[in-house]
Amino acid sequence: MCALTIDDFSPSQATCELRYKNAYLVFDRTGQIIQDLRESFTDIQPIIATPQQTAFTATEGHFQLELGACRFTGAQADTKLETFAKQCKTFFDAVTEHLQITVFTRIGFRYVLRKEYKTEAESRIALGSMQLANLKPDKRFNSSDSPTEVMFRWEDEQVGATVRLKADTTEIKVAAPVELRESALKLEKKIIGLTLDIDYYTVAPVEREQWDAQEWLPQKLRMMKKEADSIVQNGGR
User: Fold this and answer.
1) What is the pLDDT along the chain (237 residues), one digit of tens a residue?
2) Where are the domains of the chain?
3) Across the strands, what pairs with 65?
4) Which of 29, 126, 174, 208 could form a disulfide with 98 if both were Cys (CB 3.0 to 4.6 A apart)?
């Protein structure tokens, strides 16, 4: 089996999260934040609306606003994430302005990619052949199969990162209208493959004025892909 590279994986999901000390203004200003976002996002619809947590969607992605955190997940993970970064900036600028947030206790950026295989066995063989932990793909702990997940984590006083490779199957189900219920099986799909999940985050506090999502996200994406590519390629040798 040929060694994999980052280019063998397709972008699946991108999420950026900000954490901060409890911002109690969220009880009064959530509506204003959403109202401001309606100028930049399409068809905003609420999902959860409680005093401490609000979740809503738009054509462009999914938003969550909480007492001590907010996050945005893009509907499409484009290769360079330029559109995603711009959308994050719009959302986070509205949140930090209305909630008067001046310091972020954590900034997290999660980027998920997938490589599809025809069978679960193929995806597990691909993972096992990489020997990422310098271990042979043997069956261990009386398990009947080879490893299905490998994870690495690095962290110092400034930043941290987690890289996870997992052979898995994702089921996608779309709710069908009553009149199409007999053909509902056609609206279900299983995606079998190898998931590459990269999570990069800050450990030290970051001043709001020192951080700009539109500049930070594409820059970190390039670094994350370079590091992940090195891990995947070295593991395949």
Assistant:
1) 567 889 999 999 999 999 999 999 999 999 999 999 999 999 999 999 998 899 999 999 999 999 999 999 998 877 789 999 999 999 999 999 999 999 999 999 999 999 999 888 888 888 877 767 666 666 667 766 667 888 999 999 999 999 999 998 877 554 444 444 454 445 566 788 999 999 999 999 999 999 999 999 999 999 999 999 988 876 545
2) 6-235
3) 54, 70
4) 29
Angle between helix axes 213-235 and 82-98 (nearest 10 degrees) is 130
* Half-sphere exposure in the Cβ direction for 162 (13 Å, CA): 13
For strands 69-74 and 103-104, give the pairing.
Answer: unpaired
CA separation for the pair 165, 197 (Å, rounded): 6
In the numeric block, the tokens 């007999």 are attached to 182
Per-residue CA distances from 110 to 113, 124, 206 (Å) = 10, 23, 18
Please report how the helices 82-98 and 26-37 are oriented relative to each other, as an axis angle in degrees rounded to 10.
Answer: 140
Structural tokens at position 17: 């999260």
Q: What is the DSSP letter of 237?
A: -
E strands, 3-143, in order: 10-19, 45-49, 53-58, 61-66, 69-74, 103-104, 106-116
